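We close this part of the discussion by returning to an individual protein. Part of our work consisted of pairing the sequence of a single chain with a tokenised description of its backbone. What the numbers capture is local backbone geometry rather than side-chain detail. The amino acid sequence and the backbone structure tokens for this protein are reproduced below.
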Amino acid sequence: MLVYANRFEFEPEEGVEQLIKIIASWTGRKARGYVDPARLIRGISSLTIKEFAISSWSTIGADEQATFPFLFSFRLVHQDEIIKGRQWITEVGVRQDEYGGVVDCSVLLKTDEVSAKVTAPIKVTRPKLVAELVEKCRPINGTPGLFIKNLTEETADAFLQEIEKTSRKNAIILISSKEGVFFTDPEILRRQVLGLAQVVVIPSHVDTFKLEEIVGRRFTAFAGATKVIFPGRTTTHGVFCETAIFMPDNFPEKSREAITIESEILAAITHRSNVPLSRKHVSIEAVRFEVLRSKLGHAAAQAKSTDSSEEIKYFADLLDEADRELDAKGQEIEILNQQLEEMESESRKSQATIDALKHQISGRQSNEFDEDELGEVFFDIRNTLSALKAGCAKLEDALRLVSVLYSDRLVVLDTAFSSAAESDKAGFNHTSKAYELLTRLVTAYWQSMADGQGDQQAKNVFGSSFTANEAGMSNEGKKRRIFNYRGHDILMERHLKHGVKNSLAETLRVHFDWVAKDNKIVIGHCGKHLDF
């Protein structure tokens, strides 16, 4: 399994030899032995130090002088310290096109399992070797993650421009705080994603609501959350950027073996970047291919340069032909890789268009695209309405439909969609009633609240299906009714109700609150009865 792939461009003071020395030193410490950098750069077919298998290849010729382009590849294989049947493989590839030029360096981390029985989860990380190379070999300007940036009201416009750049190839990680506390150390995270992503911190004193007004809710983080903003995809509607959010509450454990928020963020990024970066990796097989080509060319030239028999010249011609064939195959592979990248680019553009339309139809960003561009996706609305009429609609679909049709009046939190899906799995069979209550909520009830009439009119709208507050709740009961909206925890005692059984299939509770400053209703829960 490919766990981690990265690629850097270095300008080391001592040239390629400096990288090889660092690799040799790191390997020696890891294997608790000595690895000779001079031997490593010439090539080691096989070396074992305390169950650590080391090998390397390079294009250094018989005269031990580097030829250009110079290629070098290194591999270290060792067993997992805890998981039996799992090996870890670290590879480093180096390429330098001319003497004194920029050094291209790629690093891969892989696992190899003996069988499908080895199922222990992998904690995604990057080799410590990466930090040493970056620290000592001078990465070029523009390498993402060299330092942490701050997002403030003054830098918000530049931040938004950076997000929407079509040339952006790396993710942006946005870290927020809660009550002045960051739940992931920005510096630790920066070191983990160095070369793959830019880390941006929202200082605790910054007004995140003003930031939201400038860059939009999708590109802002609240309440200690960390958000990953992936490179944009160009669509017919503009640039669409996918995002992923990581909440600190999902990572309570702090043990060495526990999956950390830093590991999960790195996993989300490498899931997208590993394959394209690995294609540019200088592997041992690629170096051996170039060494073979060089030997064939040298043998052919030597045979032709001497007075030899016709038979030797015949074999020299065969060597020439073999060299040309290898060169042609190498060019063919390069062309196929380019075609594959182009096809993947087209696929990403198509997927971006689909994602952008889905994003709008979900009701979470109703003004990103022009309304007339949504005709092709209105069939989802039609299907839900037809299912409601036939009595076979799901609760989640009804909730999503209302959020779309009344996105200017209603915000449905992810927790509400999740609770609705949970009820659907249990066979919830009162969706029509739920849709009726939700529709009244965003029409008559919303209007009365917008007119300043308050909850006194709610009974006229819902009758006995509405409760404004709940008495006798325990602290745990209150916690179950607290939901986060735009960085603020809201206790949602107001709720709509249907049914009294302790059953996900028969009972409905819709917990919500009225946010006067936004003139909107916010739903935090839509599903089972919440314990007191």
The radius of gyration is 30 Å. Residues 2-136 form one domain. The first strand starts at residue 2 and ends at 10. The chain has four domains: 2-136, 149-274, 284-353, 378-527.
